[in-house]
Every structure is written in structure tokens, then in C-alpha cells.
Specification:
With 207 residues, this protein is an all-alpha fold. It has a domain at 1-93. The chain has helices spanning 2-26, 32-67, 73-93, 98-133, 137-152, 161-198. Helix 1 (2-26) packs across helix 2 and helix 2 (32-67) packs across helix 3 (73-93). The longest helix is centred in the C-terminal third of the chain and has 38 residues, at 161-198. It is extended and about 75 Å long. The two termini are 14 Å apart. The relative contact order is 0.08.
Length: 207
């Protein structure tokens, strides 16, 4: 009986819910769309509570590390202070408050730009390592593409034509690679969903 409760009942609930939601998307003109929308709403609510629990778990773990003076205590203090500064103003004053917009405009956006700028150094280091360990046509092609892409983003006089080459590299071969990645992600998502529906993959069960 205990095995039925812990294994088969979660499988039955997950499979039934998944099939109802899938049928609601495949046959939107039927009454199944109502059950589909309700199940999606429930999933969103559960996901929101899971996010809240995750935040509290992060605060608990790093707070315990600070109290115990464990390794990385300074980083835990910085993380907790940053979390409080990020969460309190939107909750108290709302997401459209000037303080919240200021944090986004003057802290989060510059940090995102700095992380994007690190891509230049990462690509340069990858090109140097590739030349040292593996030399061939593919390595040469990679280095040429990196150089053209980086020079195409710099405002150099006399090299305006490089911006057109960069746009073509990003729009044609780059977009083709992104679409291939998206197709792979979509196929992996479909396969994982089928495994969950068939009961082969059981992230909701202890067995």
C-alpha cells in the first residue's frame, strides 16, 4: 500500500494532468481547453511558491554560514545584503518606483553589460588556446570569424564595411546555429515530457 501511494499515485496524477493539458492544446475548440488553462494556472502558482521556498532556502543556508563563521562568510554577507536591497524596495514601493528603476538602470544593466564584455576576453583566450593545441582549417575559420565580429562592433574609421560583414555573420550562420540549438532544446523537452507521461521519468516520485 505504501508503495502504491508513493509511486503509482504520483505517476497517475502527473500522467493524467499532462495528458489533459496536451489534449487541451491539441483540441482547443473542445471543453478540454478549460481544464488545460486551469492546470496551467495551478502550475504557475506552484512554481511561484517553489521560487519563494528557494529564496528562503538560500537565505537560510547563507545565514547559517554567517552564524557559524564558515568558509566564504564574506560572500554570504554580500549575497544577503544584495538580496535584501533587491527585494525590499520592489515589495514596499512597487516595481515602478524610482528606487527600483534606479537599481535596474544603474546596477543590473551595467553588470549585464560588463558580463557581455567579458565575452571578448573569453573568445580571445579560446582563440589563443586553439592555436596552441589544435591547428587546422576550423581553427583558422574560428579566429577569422572572431576577429571580424569584434572589429565590426568597434567604431573605427575606414572599417565601416566590417559592420555589414558582422551583421551577415550574426544574421545568417549565427542564427542558423541558434535555431539548431533551439530545435535540440525543443526535441529534448518533448522527449522528457513523453518519458514523464509514460512513467519512465519520475521526478515527482521517490522511486
Amino acid at each position: 500500500m505504501r508503495r502504491i501511494i508513493r509511486k503509482w499515485i504520483p505517476i497517475f496524477i502527473a500522467t493524467t494532468s499532462g495528458l489533459l493539458a496536451l489534449a487541451g492544446y491539441l483540441f482547443p475548440d473542445t471543453g478540454l481547453s478549460v481544464y488545460r488553462d486551469r492546470l496551467v494556472e495551478w502550475a504557475v502558482i506552484i512554481g511561484a511558491f517553489a521560487l519563494i521556498l528557494g529564496v528562503f532556502n538560500v537565505l537560510r543556508v547563507h545565514g547559517q554560514r554567517i552564524l557559524e563563521s564558515g568558509k566564504g562568510q564574506v560572500y554570504s554577507v554580500v549575497l544577503l545584503v544584495a538580496a535584501l536591497v533587491s527585494f525590499v524596495p520592489p515589495l514596499v514601493y512597487g516595481p515602478t518606483d524610482s528606487l527600483t528603476r534606479g537599481m535596474v538602470d544603474y546596477v543590473i544593466t551595467p553588470l549585464g553589460g560588463a558580463l557581455a564584455a567579458l565575452v571578448v576576453f573569453t573568445l580571445t583566450l579560446s582563440a589563443v588556446r586553439m592555436l596552441r593545441h589544435r591547428r587546422g582549417p576550423s581553427s583558422l575559420l574560428f579566429i577569422v570569424v572572431v576577429i571580424l565580429t569584434l572589429l565590426g562592433t568597434t567604431p573605427l574609421r575606414g572599417f565601416e564595411w566590417l559592420s555589414e560583414i558582422r551583421s551577415w555573420l550574426v544574421g545568417v550562420p549565427g542564427m542558423a546555429g541558434v535555431r539548431g540549438l533551439l530545435l535540440g532544446v525543443a526535441l529534448g523537452t518533448v522527449i522528457t515530457g513523453i518519458r514523464v507521461l509514460l512513467g519512465s521519468e519520475r521526478p515527482h516520485s521517490e522511486f
